[in-house]
Design goal:
The chain has one domain: Fe-S cluster assembly (FSCA) (GMP Synthetase, Chain A, domain 3, 2-Layer Sandwich). Helices cover 25% and strands 16% of the residues. The chain has three helices and three strands; from the N terminus they run αββαβα. It has a three-stranded mixed beta sheet with strand order 1-2-3, covered by helices on one side. It is globular.
């Protein structure tokens, strides 16, 4: 099984640390409609970058380039992250490298879906 690329963030213990926690909490409320696991635990979030101006850039992928929510999920992520208190703006970059695989899911997600 491949290791999940850990989402990267900027900043150490600072106000952005709290903002990062709020962003992650929001990401955990967004589900792939075909899989009963949130996108963060599913391993679809490859990076969370928070700038000094509190803008948030998300790098994410989908389970497949042919995913039926390819057109709707990234804008949903962008809108929900932009709505987090303290976020000045949000953007989402959809990436395909490395390709997503089930090994990128958290242990909890793998258990939920019966992979362990």
């Amino acid at each position: 099984m491949s290791e999940t690329p850990a989402p990267t963030t900027t900043g150490e213990a600072s106000p952005t640390t709290d903002l990062e926690a709020d962003v992650i909490a929001t990401l955990k409320t967004i589900y792939d409609p075909e899989i009963p696991v949130d996108i963060y635990e599913l391993g679809l979030i490859y990076g969370i970058d928070i700038a000094e101006d509190r803008s948030v850039a998300i790098r994410m992928t989908l389970t497949s380039p042919m995913c039926p929510v390819a057109g709707s999920l990234p804008p949903e992520v962008e809108a929900k992250v932009a709505g987090v208190s303290g976020v000045s703006s949000a953007s989402v970059e959809l990436v395909w490298e490395p390709p997503w695989n089930p090994g990128m899911m958290s242990e909890g997600a793998r258990l939920e879906l019966g992979f362990d």
